Amino acid sequence: RRWIVQHMARRHGDIFVLEVPVYGRIVVVANPQLAKQVFTTSPEVLGNIQPNLSRLLGSGSVFALDGDEHRQRRRLLAPPFHGKSIKNYETIIEEETLREIASWPEGTAFATLPSTMRITLNAILRAVFGAEGTELDELRRILPPWVTLGSRLATLPKPPRTYGRYSPWGRLAEWRRRYDMVLDKLIESERADPNFENRTDVLAVMLRSTYEDGSSMSRNDIGDELLTLLAAGHETTAATLGWAFERLSRHPDVLAALVAEADTNDNELRQATILEVQRTRTVIDFTGRRVLAPLYELGDWVIPQNNSILVSISRMHANAEVFPDPDRFD
Fold this sequence. Notes:
Strand order of the largest sheet: 1-2-7-4-3
Shape: globular
Number of helices: 13
Order of helices and strands: HEEHEHHHHHHHHHHEEEEH
Number of strands: 7
Radius of gyration: 22 Å
Largest sheet: 5 strands, mixed
Structural class: alpha+beta
Distance between the termini: 25 Å
């Protein structure tokens, strides 16, 4: 996918059209100014790309929502992710990191991605549910294979039936059933906690949150949103951490400077390193919209209704006009 976008952009420039199975006609945009226009366009004009990740995460996921529904859900989900709330999770992240690296070999090359996957999954599970126990052990067994298989099926057409546990969609459905059973137990346990009103984990905040009209999220919507957090959150973060190890192991001078900075109160180099890892090793390489208006004017082009627009993040990160010598880790 990334190769063909780079190839087409070199041949046709930073905006071109592809005909893609399942998605139909797609306008690929790799120009920063046009991308900014896409991201600042009203959701009544540009909506959620179809099909989207709701096929995997459920119709109650924020990935599935458009317009007012999307805005209301974003507002409802904001409290667990405010700065003060995130501060509560720092200890969890530190504990999980120290627990994992205690088993790392010294003087021997090893793959870091399995470790970063465990760190991010365990940290998110504890932050979301605020507890340990057999239920979280079950989620640790369910989620990694679910995410791996789901990411492979995400861009394929979904069949009208799953064809049982011997088909990939059937396996996803079985893992979702087991996930829902675990979540029901965790919700029951949280509501029975005498300290429920003071709990800071994401599930407790969701259970207490209400919309402006006083209604609360449905059980299904909570399940879909938590699955979105768990599935879309841990693998992407783990992959970025894995690439950070890859980049820094190849640039020992940067690593040495980071070590020196860690002994001070500065974090400028650390922040720059995080951004440069994300630029040179982009994990989420595109994002999509669908034209809802009869016509949409994007720069000098007019795009008809029901066409999709794909903003190529990885291509923009390789733009030599924006990032001189873009292949260099700078």
